[in-house]
From TrEMBL:
This is Phosphonates import ATP-binding protein PhnC 2. InterPro entries: AAA+_ATPase (IPR003593), ABC_transporter-like_ATP-bd (IPR003439), ABC_transporter-like_CS (IPR017871), MetN_ABC_transporter-like (IPR050086), P-loop_NTPase (IPR027417). It comes from Paenibacillus albidus. Residues 2-241 form the ABC transporter domain. Pfam families: ABC_tran. The keyword DNA-binding does not apply. Gene3D superfamilies: P-loop containing nucleotide triphosphate hydrolases (3.40.50.300). It comes from the Bacteria. Keywords: ATP-binding, Nucleotide-binding, Transport. GO terms for molecular function: ATP binding; ATP hydrolysis activity. SMART domains: AAA (SM00382).
Length: 241
């Protein structure tokens, strides 16, 4: 269970408020789509949750751990167990899909492994399992530069899962993908949430949000204006989108 209370963030010299009194609880298996007009604070919210931005104010608890109360264990928990996926997955184009999954991101991988590229056999099997689950087994030995955008995004998801991600924060993970690939990525995330209890919070276009999300947040002026579960948005709720 994730609990956020009174999250606030202001930016720039004039301290312009970008997030104001944001609060919510999240349960395992939820797939949350974050919607809102340009500048409403969607990316900032994801970056704050990933601890890539400092919070000005707010409480943050994950599975009973007070993230800011336990300076060391709290932040480490987020860095180890949460993955932040940017729009264009940060993969090494010259390495195979499998190597990208195994080596992981610097926050999750010991330095010696990044330098030597050495892996344990159970890690290898784990990575192959994740690639298989994401329909990428036949692409495991291909360089990621040869994969499509949707396949690369799924490699990034496989990498996050192999490294134990319980929460994936994804900023526009399907932007730029063709409709079939976008559906494919979303179907994969939806299935993982249902089967494994993974939590996903992601910025999505409204059409995909209404098809795949279990919950929709509409942000306006840095606040969650609407928090909708298990149904489409009403005309009023989608008014400023
Ligand atoms: N570091 C920063 N310095 C100055 N302004 C910032 C900074 N970070 C965000 N902002 C401003 O905060 C507001 C919210 O930004 P954010 O990127 O979170 O919005 P968004 O909803 O993701 O927008 P978009 O849909 O256009 O990507 C914007 O007006 C943006 O210009």
């Amino acid at each position: 269970m994730i609990t956020v209370e009174h999250l606030a963030k202001a930016v720039g010299e004039e301290k312009m408020p970008v997030l104001q009194d944001v609060g919510f609880q999240l349960e395992p298996g939820e797939l949350v789509a974050v919607l809102g007009g340009s500048g409403s604070g969607k990316s900032t919210l994801l970056r704050c949750l990933a601890l890539r931005e400092k919070w000005d104010r707010g409480n943050f608890r994950v599975d009973g751990t007070d993230i800011f109360g336990n300076v060391f264990t709290g932040k480490r928990k987020i860095r180890r167990e949460w993955a932040y996926l940017e729009q264009n997955a940060e993969l090494n184009p010259n390495r195979t899909a499998l190597k990208n999954v195994l080596i992981g991101q610097s926050a999750q991988t010991p330095l010696w492994r990044m330098v030597t590229g050495m892996v344990r056999s159970d890690d290898y099997m784990g990575a192959m399992d994740e690639l298989d689950a994401l329909g990428l087994l036949d692409k495991a030995k291909m360089k990621t530069s040869q994969l499509s955008g949707g396949e690369r995004q799924r490699v990034a998801i496989a990498r996050a899962l192999t490294h134990g991600a319980k929460v994936i924060l994804a900023d526009e993970p399907v932007t730029g993908l063709d409709p079939k690939s976008a559906e494919n990525v979303m179907e994969t995330l939806r299935r993982l949430c249902k089967e494994t209890g993974l939590i996903v919070v992601t910025v999505l276009p409204i059409e995909l949000a209404e098809r795949f999300a279990t919950r929709i947040w509409v942000l306006e002026d840095g606040r969650i204006k609407h928090d909708v579960k298990g149904r489409r948005l009403t005309v009023k709720e989608r008014m400023n989108l």
